[in-house]
Amino acid sequence: MAMENSSISPPNGSCSPLCERNWTDFNCSIPGQCFYPNFYVLLPVIYSVICAVGLTGNTAVIYVILKAPKMKTVTNMFILNLAIADDLFTLVLPINIAEHLLQYWPFGEVLCKIILSIDHYNIFSSIYFLTVMSIDRYLVVLATVRSKRTPHRTYRAAKIVSLCVWVLVILIVLPFTVFAGVYTVPEEPDHKSCVLSFPGSETFWVKAGRIYTLILGFAIPVSTICILYTMMLYKLRNMRLNSNAKVLDKAKKKVTVMVFIVLAVCLFCWTPFHLSTIVALTTDLQTTPLVIGISYFITSLSYANSCLNPFLYAFLDDSFRKAFKKMLECRPA
């Protein structure tokens, strides 16, 4: 079995999913070379903040959408699922932090598969739900331009689409779940690592996994989103030029702008991660403190996306702000 270090390797070859984000290691495969003391305390602090903020914010979003009757819209159904995906990831961050501090994996095979799977769910689920939201926005704009209604665009239909996205993401992540496992360093039987262990040629599987993640987790969905928004802007431009066309009402404009900004923030957080994959595929960078520092920064940025969306909703959506305020009010029984 060839072991594929899916993370920046801490001392003695351990492989933490906390630092992982799927091969941002820039070909760092020699145990003990990829860890520096400055990161030992700093990273758990950063990830603890992301965990606390993300868990609080996304849980609040989930609560508001489920409890407030006016929040049950098609767009909010997709936002709900996006918040669930982010919440799921932040829930397992404490385990990753513990592994980072212990510098070995003490939690067993089953939990290793779960943690690595959830980490990869987070890579794919965010961009896929944003792709669905972009498709939804395009259909709304198209229907408005043509002065048509969208009878099939219902809350129930949004639930079915969300379920299909979850099934698709699970199928995409399944290979990582299968290959995830606990690896024991031969020289140190007590030192265990949670890694992706591939059969056969390690080089082939590493490259195949990177390309697989890059294409399915970035290239295809981002290309789809770019095409949709280009077409959407074209339709809106023609609509303004056509004096007989009805402009988008204020509410639809606000939702469209919100989806666009959430998408922009997601791409800002995730693009460096996927660019690092391209760098890893095309170059052979030497492992230096600077390279490792950049790699950790890229990982932190991708993690941070899981806690930013609730602030965007609160800032951009009046209904969210009002619902948050009601939730925080202390009313007598």
From TrEMBL:
TM annotation in the entry: 45-66, 78-97, 126-145, 157-183, 211-234, 255-273, 293-316
Q: How does it sit in the membrane?
A: Multi-pass membrane protein
GO CC annotation terms, alphabetical: neuron projection; plasma membrane
Asked if the record carries the keyword rRNA-binding, the reply is: no
Q: Where in the cell is it found?
A: Cell membrane
Question: Pfam families given for it?
Answer: 7tm_1 (PF00001)
State where it is primarily located: membrane
Sorted keywords for this record are: Cell membrane, Disulfide bond, G-protein coupled receptor, Glycoprotein, Membrane, Receptor, Transducer, Transmembrane, Transmembrane helix
Q: Which GO terms describe its molecular function?
A: neuropeptide binding; neuropeptide receptor activity
Q: Which SUPFAM superfamilies match?
A: Family A G protein-coupled receptor-like (SSF81321)
Q: Which PROSITE patterns match?
A: G_PROTEIN_RECEP_F1_1 (PS00237), G_PROTEIN_RECEP_F1_2 (PS50262)
Q: Which residues form the G-protein coupled receptors family 1 profile domain?
A: 57-313
The answer to whether UniProt assigns keyword Calcium to this entry is no
Which residues does UniProt call coiled coil? Answer: none
**Which family would the database say this protein is a member of?**
Belongs to the G-protein coupled receptor 1 family.
Please report the name of this protein according to its UniProt entry.
G-protein coupled receptors family 1 profile domain-containing protein
Q: Which organism is it from?
A: Erpetoichthys calabaricus
Q: What is the lineage of its organism?
A: Eukaryota, Metazoa, Chordata, Craniata, Vertebrata
Protein's gene:
npbwr2b
